[in-house]
Amino acid sequence: MVLLKLVKSTFSDVIPDLIKHSSNVTQWGLQRGTTILYIPYLPFNFFLEKNDLNSKQKNVISNISNLNKQTKMQATTKIVDNWKKVLNALKTNRNMGKLWSKAIEDHSEIDLEESKKLNDYRLAAHAFIWSKNDQSLWELSSKASIMMQMRFDGFIGFPGGLIDSTDASVVDGLNRELREEINLNEKYYITNENYFFSSVNHQRKIILHFYVKEVTQTELIGIEKAALDSHDYGTEVMGIIRPPLYDIKPGRGFNIFLQNQFVGNSLLQLLKTMSLLDILDNQTILKFIDSC
Ligand SMILES: O=c1[nH]cnc2c1ncn2[C@H]1C[C@H](O)[C@@H](COP(=O)(O)OP(=O)(O)O)O1
């Protein structure tokens, strides 16, 4: 990390546009004051292929590219460690209900290719449809609006469902479910590019695929309104909800929402996806769980 600080101060003069921004990453559990490089979205090859760079500059970019890989690995280890703390807090928090700690024990993450080998397992797929948020309530704001639903069984979950043998693919089955449950317009249909991660429950022999679709705030409101006309509205789907991501003191807001009952591993899917999309960092998630 110290090395990276050095790199930043030395090289930022050489290629100022390469180092877009550096940040304290306390949310990843690194010590305050630690600086890491935040590498721009453009791939390094983009810079290496630029004709106006001299060989020294290209060398610098190659070195930073290698450091970037190392930094990512270190940061990922920290994220994974912190994620374990989140899982542990979820398991041990008494206010979150026995059902929830069982859900965490029963589900584990599985690689997509690995999951294809479990061919006697049922498949289900659910979607995290969300937008960045530009609305605020008094002085409170949240970074995102996320679509979840109150189900017929009193549990909260994401729209989606079991994949049928008649569905041409997982994504086709998911879009069929989204049509039935939330009347999703086909222009928002999920594609393989929206795939995020998969979980498995070996006891119940089911694989849960999870997809993420970002839309604009206006589009999300349109999707929510259209859901009222869905086939399943009022029967399987009792209402569309948005998790209130607010941090309201004392102890109100998202931590109250966390005390609901969530179907399958949907709460894990919610927290993990918010963490990966940087909607809420792991430290904040831990704080919310601890204040349940
Ligand atoms: O949002 C969810 N996240 C993870 N797992 C979920 C979610 N919703 C349901 N489930 C589990 C529960 C079941 O084992 C299967 C399928 O349930 P469901 O979505 O109710 O399926 P149908 O609509 O009946 O096809 O996934």
N/C terminus separation: 35 Å
Instruction: Please tally the β strands and state the result.
Output: 14
What CATH first level of the largest domain would be assigned? Alpha Beta
Mean pLDDT: 79
Number of separate helices: 10
The helix-strand sequence is: HEEHHHEHEEEEEEHEEHEEEHHH
Shape: globular
Bound molecules: ligand L6YBMIIZ
Determine the CATH superfamily of the largest domain: Nucleoside Triphosphate Pyrophosphohydrolase
Topology, please?
Layout: H1 2-11, E1 21-24, E2 35-38, H2 44-48, H3 55-92, H4 98-106, E3 107-110, H5 112-117, E4 122-132, E5 136-137, E6 140-141, E7 144-151, E8 156-157, E9 160-162, H6 170-182, E10 195-201, E11 206-215, H7 217-227, E12 237-241, E13 247-248, E14 252-253, H8 254-257, H9 266-276, H10 282-290
Parallel strand pairs: 4-11
Antiparallel strand pairs: 1-2, 3-10, 4-7, 4-9, 5-6, 7-8, 7-12, 10-11, 13-14
The chain binds the ligand O=c1[nH]cnc2c1ncn2[C@H]1C[C@H](O)[C@@H](COP(=O)(O)OP(=O)(O)O)O1.
Protein described:
It is built from 10 helices and 14 strands. The chain is of the alpha+beta class and 292 residues long. Strands 3, 4, 7, 8, 9, 10, 11 and 12 form an 8-stranded mixed β-sheet that branches. A two-stranded antiparallel ribbon has the order 1-2. A hairpin with a 4-residue loop joins β10 and β11. The protein starts with a helix and ends with a helix. The N terminus is likely disordered. Bound molecules: the ligand O=c1[nH]cnc2c1ncn2[C@H]1C[C@H](O)[C@@H](COP(=O)(O)OP(=O)(O)O)O1. The site of the ligand O=c1[nH]cnc2c1ncn2[C@H]1C[C@H](O)[C@@H](COP(=O)(O)OP(=O)(O)O)O1 has 15 residues, from β4, β9, β11 and α9. The ligand O=c1[nH]cnc2c1ncn2[C@H]1C[C@H](O)[C@@H](COP(=O)(O)OP(=O)(O)O)O1 binds next to β4, β9, β11 and α9.
